[in-house]
Amino acid sequence: MEWIIKGIISRVESKDYYVLSLPDHLEIRCSLKGKFKKSFNLKKDKLYHTDIAVVGDLVEFELNADETGVIKEILNRKNYLSRKAPRIRGASYRGERLEQIIAANIDEVFIVTSILEPAFNNKTVDRFLVATESSRIKSNLIINKIDLDPNKTYSKWSSLYRSIGYYTLETSIITGHNVDTIKKLIRNKKVLFWGPSGVGKSSILNEIYPELNLKIASISTSTMKGKHTTVTSRLFFMEDETYIIDTPGVREIDPYGIKKEDLGHFFPEFNNFINACRFNTCTHNHEPGCAVLRAVQDSLIPEVRYESYLRILNTIEDDINF
Length: 322
Ligand SMILES: Nc1nc2c(ncn2[C@@H]2O[C@H](COP(=O)(O)OP(=O)(O)O)[C@@H](O)[C@H]2O)c(=O)[nH]1
Ligand SMILES: [Mg+2]
Ligand SMILES: [Zn+2]
Description:
By secondary structure, this protein is an alpha/beta fold. Helices cover about 25% and strands about 25% of the residues. It contains 9 helices and 15 strands. β11, α3 (about 155-165) and β12 (about 170) form a beta-alpha-beta unit. The strands form 4 sheets. Strands 12-11-10-13-15-14 form a 6-stranded mixed β-sheet, sandwiched between helices. It has helices spanning about 35-40, 120-135, 155-165, 180-185, 200-210, 215-220, 270-275, 290-295, 305-315; strands spanning about 5-10, 15-20, 25-30, 60-65, 70-75, 80-85, 90-95, 95, 100-105, 110-115, 140-145, 170, 190-195, 235, 245. α2 packs across α9. Zinc ion binds near residues 277, 282, 284, 291 and 292. Guanosine-5'-diphosphate (GDP) binds near residues 145, 147, 172 and 200.
């Protein structure tokens, strides 16, 4: 049969099975054509990432007689978001860590945090921001649960991130504060909600689109396998051109594939100074003539951001270089 149709991967069940979203909220379960697995295995020794096809991928598939499908092509990705694969046995090659792709073809990422329960952690936020910056995906920040913070300690953080240039929203699903603003912002975009677990990602999404009812969505899926332990993201088609990717909570992320001398570029407020450093390989860590360091001393770069920078710098391993 030569009937090629396009769909978007909305869920990865395993390396062999993918659920595709089609217009009109149709879903179809697909396997992957053998050629992908063959080339994946062939390249295993040189492989840098853990995924063949990911949530958000646009694919072409052929329909089988039993209403399942076979993915024949994975179309080029406009972009993708990734992190270092968690340190688990089998996920590393010669001790180096592989790249785990979270999702592809994203217009904007919303990094969701809460001011309390769990407490706001700017170091964690900065790691997420470095990951989105290095993927060149526009990111916004949501500080949720402001109803728990009558003294408005969150405003210190929102001002900080706004001063850097990040669009930052303070929200609460208890008072409904700014929930409509998010809804307007994500209209006709492909957006991904990312952040630590328990901060309210799914709650906010349910508030914006009650029909989403994330729990019901997971119960109605064709297989229940791994329902409670799933570590994959899920894509939902909403109105018009809007789609949303909800991700499972992650405690910490390590940005992938960043060289020490490039890290500064993923702190946008450093960019005005980096070119003035004496050495073009400056890592802005006590090198003489470092303009970034001087800017920190002159309070032109926020000290807390520079502390985050140093901490990430010190944890960068020697990744595989391309
Ligand atoms: N007080 C308060 N609790 C919230 C708010 N948003 C979410 N929660 C609660 O935080 C918990 C975790 O929410 P959930 O959406 O599962 O977080 P996720 O892991 O980021 O998806 C739930 O008990 C929610 O009821 C909020 O704005 N204020
Ligand atoms: Mg959730
Ligand atoms: Zn420097």
